[in-house]
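Lecture 7 notes: from sequence to structure.
We start with the chain below.
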Amino acid sequence: MKPWFEREQEITEFKEPVAYKGLNISVTKTKVNPPYIATVKSPATGKEVMKTGGNTEQEALDSAKQAVDKREADAPNISAGGQTSLLFNTPSNDELLKDPTIYNDIYAKISKDSNGPTLVIGNELYGAADLAADGFRRSDRRNPKKATTDALPQVAVNASNKLLSQMGIKMNGRYTMDIEGKYRDENEHTVYPLQFQSSTIHAGDKERMNRPGLTIGTTREDIQPWFQREVEEAEIIKFPEPENKVLDMPSVASYPDFITGVADLKARRHKGDISQASHDKLYTDLIHRFMRKEDVESPWFLREDTTLREAARGVMFREPGQKFYYKNDETKFLEFQKVLALPQQKNNFDNAEQMEQAIQDVYKKIKTNDIHWFNNPTGALAFAIAHFKNEQGQDKFFGKYFRQLTGSPQQRTNIWKNTDFRDLGYQLDTPSSRKAGYGLKPQLVGLRTDQAYSNPKQIISEIKDKTFSEPLKSMPGSFPQFNIDEKLEPAVRDDFGEVIGPIALWLGMNLDPATEAARKFYLGKQPWSSCKIIFPGAQTTGLIDSVLRPPAGAGIGISSKGGKGAQPSIKNLRAGINALRKNPTENNKKLLNEYKSAISVIETLADLSAIDGPIKVASERGLINSAVVDAFKKALSGKISQQEKKLLIPLTKYKKTKGKSVLVYHALAGLVNQLAGSLNSDKKLRFSEAGLKFLNSSPLIQLYMNTKAESGTVSVTGFKAIWPPQFSGQVLVSDRMYQTNKSPNGKMSFSFQ
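Predicted structure tokens for the same chain:
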């Protein structure tokens, strides 16, 4: 007689599915006994899991829930010994990866809450060392050989079986991640409740889940399925079993490791599931699959744990794919792949012999001794190897020695400047680096900073490249013309213009009526040639690019930037305040008194460091309390507690980042962003109004150079001068000097709108 669920049924009523532990339970009413049927389906796979019956709708539903609970309870827990992997499916990429098509490292661990096991994804603000100390494991890519193909990346994370056992994880379990139920824990980590779906029964047992989820990659055995064990008839109506067992030929590709494959094949042969001939063939395939081979597309140096991902701090922090172009032939380049720092787990080798042995091992691994070393090993007990590919796809290796490594094994922080490659003719290929790479700033063409030059001849004689020094000799008769590539026009206009502008002014060239008015105001009857020319020491000094120092009185700042010129710095505002104080007219005294609150903010930001200044002002304005101030101090000293980290993390929401970040700098950048908004919107403070007054009171000439590029030349066509300073619009506080992954590039700056 056929079982009840196979008899022809007339469904008279259909109920909406009930969600329970990641499964859907649908109850239908029939005209057979038991009249109510509960069907349990997995929305992740679309497959039916089980059916139960009851005399009432609620009884059928309760019976199904009992069956689901028993099914999970009866599934064997993972054994407590050894290691395993959390194998994530590709739908989980949308949750785990910044871009679901591109692999990036994550930190994860299995935990549990009151409802059961959970997956916890670490907040990267804590940094690799802190996350590792809290039990998180760094991920790997499951399919590294497909990294250069269009295949979607698959994420895997190692885990301790002992920990998984303590958290109630099932052997070979398949789990979906409860996306709707995810939440943040007290440490701001992302927590996904895990919903048990099924267990992997044997090596060929594959089931595709269309929702974010993971599989526990432990040993797969051909045991009697746990859900086929005897159950109480009163609780669950038992289903018939097939008379003959359907056998699947094992797939070597499905085994997670060599030992698992050997054990499974041996068990199958003893049971008679496969013949000796099949066993021998599959065993040979298994050996070939797990034989350790060096992958040409993914050699050892691309698989090491020392993965440094942060940006903009030299070679140790370059991103894969970034290029250094060859300045004499831009069709040639070096494309960064990865950097490896050794030793990996210590900061230095015990002696020079150990380091030399490690270097010899590297030569063997990369199968070449051709490494270009940028320095000598004298006194060094550590080193780093940077791997590049040139325009022909050939591997190129570069090395640098260090006395010892700094930072953590996951994130070494030694200084290896991008500019080291200039000696080889290569320059980092970013817009700012390109312009800087031409080396036309005053400090880079050979001029001494803070040196008082008496006349232009002294300046011209110290410029190293005659391509740029000789054309300057045409002044004052005519503006210079440079026989150079047109691509250099922005560098000539914005960088070398800082040299040309004060020279043209000193020589008395007819630049603009405003320059003559400024001369009369500052110098009276004296010519510009009575001044000495000074180039400030810092390459980034806000509006001031050079200074004309008269025999008596204050220096006169020159802003020589092309185009719109530079953005004002805190020093420029402070200079305007000082100018008002040195000339204590009634009007100036009134200005100083009217804007004393804004002056207090400016002086604090100017006098204190780029870190201490904003923290002090933010504290005074009530944006942070003393506990947060102390947390910043502890974080900067490297001795911050978990509780203090929790005080800084909320600040990070004010500064978005696309890449990795360092908590203290991310929090500082967020605080500065918040502070900028507070200062700009404070109507009582009137910061913008005060800023314009101070800038227009400063001893400054705005001198902007114009250029033209054509036929292999770059020509200076003239200057536009503005004096007295006529800054208008709004002066707004800016956070542009503050990044989320490193210390500030300078003090708080300002922008015009």
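Points to note: Residues 663-681 form the longest helix (19 residues). Residues 300-435 form one domain.
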